[in-house]
Amino acid sequence: MNLKIEQMEKLMICATKPYEITWNEKVYCDTVKESELKEMINLYYSVYSKSHVQSVARQKYEYYDALLKEQINDIDCDYSSIIHDSKTHEIIAVCLVQEWEQLPYILDIVVNPMYQNQGIGEMMIKKVLHRAKDKYPAIRLSVNPGNPAEYLYHKLGFIGGTITYKLKYEN
Fold first, then answer.
1. pTM score, two decimals?
2. Which sign, positive or negative, has the C-alpha torsion 71, 72, 75, 80?
3. Domain with 116 in it: what CATH number?
4. Is the pLDDT of residue 88 over 80?
5. Domain encompassing residue 38
6. Whose CA is closest to 8, among 170, 169, 163?
């Protein structure tokens, strides 16, 4: 029997700090609403099914359906964001945050590929860092090592911690 690495994650942490949050005219930020759950699930599946991380890419639609339905009641709406296209009003990005071990933890940052590299993910993270500054000393998130977003996290001041591995036995 051999062990195979199925997934790796690195926990990262960043001190909270003030930011000026200004959205461009092409998008608007809203709070997470359960009524938009189906559209959020669709976004998750369409983005993550194309992930370079195989354990993420192979998840079925039902996985995200169950995951988000389970998480929706634990989401901290003060820190989480749904970003809409100003013209079409479709959801183009989501940042879900919940408290974990007495600190905000960013569960996911999902941005429609057509809207990536426009600063939307960065603004959602800055919103969390800014809003949490009066209540928490830091926020956390996890990233798959090698994910291009890791550069953004370092740029914003996140420092990396331990890498954890999900292993699978193979015959």
1. 0.89
2. positive
3. 3.40.630.30
4. yes
5. 2-170
6. 163
